[in-house]
């Protein structure tokens, strides 16, 4: 009865539009209705059996869709009857992978969903390319490694899968299996395919690193038994990697594998420091004390005192220095937990080095925790120290890195902190200058600068008498003179344009959104004070006055800003945009219109002359006029 119903709808297929026919065909494939699909394809052959269909976040052929939904009968029917391109690729969103997999073949999809029958069908009857690579160089064998299907991996290898194919960054299948905690796959790669247990990716990480990240004791133990070494290629060694995760069991797995006394001692010190790392899911101060004390006892037994390349007094750490003896360490235990946290950071800096990402992240996280408890001064000192390490060692910023400082400044103002460190603001401005000068994350960093300028405008009344505020003004003048604009939206808005707008992206940051509301007359005033061009134009030749004139709400604030622009900064109210409109002509509110008419009523003679030239369409470009005069006429 079901088949008859399907055939009835098939006979009526000519009644449907092309879009509806495509959806019927696609739906039948997804739902596994092989008789319906075959009928549809017979009675209304599609021009291209390899055409792409969109479904959710996926974009695929019928063959890939059938593989994804594990419909072996449809795959067989398509291969036998309609001869699709066996290697035609698509983009697939798998349930167990966060990202979309771009450019994957039907075979890759069949492996990824773990359907051995379809895999055999595609290889043996379709002659699928067993080494086809996706956009990110993921092969079918890699998909088998990800899901831990040893049977499929063996089959692919027996039919010519190339074990040497690796994903971008030399991320091998052995590394992936180690990370995914597939002990049986790791054993297969090592014992039967003779993969190198000490291979490393472009970042210097070995299978041991990935096994530790995965957290499987069995995988780590197996790798060590098969010859994996505690070696590092410009990266933290696997032993210290395990210690940084506060995984005592993984550290102990290295016990019988030819480590020096110093390696063991430093691993125990890092293990203790990691237990004191508040971010760690294994946070345990008692464990931290226990392991640091063990390390001190081993140093005494082996006569290996700590060696410091240089002893620095770091303001961020309250000028505390790392303890050198067990007696000194016992003395600090009577102090606050903060002292032990600082000790853990000092230990990490000595052993891991200032450039180490995990160490720098620990500084940031501890600073964030202090900010959450309103210990802003200490928090800022820690963050500024980490910022200084980045700049000192030329380490690029994540684009959210500097924005987080602005978040903290906004939070401080909201929580009524009277004084914000001018030094902190100045350092962030310098870092933003470095980033913008090198065109890194231009629009994001420009918005960060913009929000910071708003914060400066809110605190400048209280702190303007301090000499350090003059340094801030000087660097702001430099920013203004550089004439940075947005570029990603092709609007080329200046900072002054931005200050006229509403709805700027604040990345859902509640503190910034609560404090930085636009249009903001304080921000505008500070920008004008620092020399912002009041008649700057965007890609539509709109001046800031054009933008503020279009506002329909908060009219009292709008009129105040128009006065700022025209009376204080000398904006020309008769400048025209690409549509030949003045600010008056784009305004919709009657009070704004009247206010702008008053401003135009006192136009200077040169403005009247420029408008006369433009309105009469007098050709002036052929005369040898100074560039500033040409620009002035064009604005009118």
UniProtKB/TrEMBL annotation:
Which keywords annotate this record? ANK repeat, Repeat, Ubl conjugation pathway
* UniProt keyword Repeat, yes or no: yes
Which InterPro entries does the protein's record reference? Ankyrin_rpt, Ankyrin_rpt-contain_sf
Q: In which pathway does it act?
A: Protein modification; protein ubiquitination
**A Pfam family hit:** Ank_2
Please list the residue ranges covered by the ANK repeats: 102-126, 136-168, 203-228
Q: Which family does it belong to?
A: Belongs to the fem-1 family.
- Name the chain's protein: Protein fem-1 homolog B
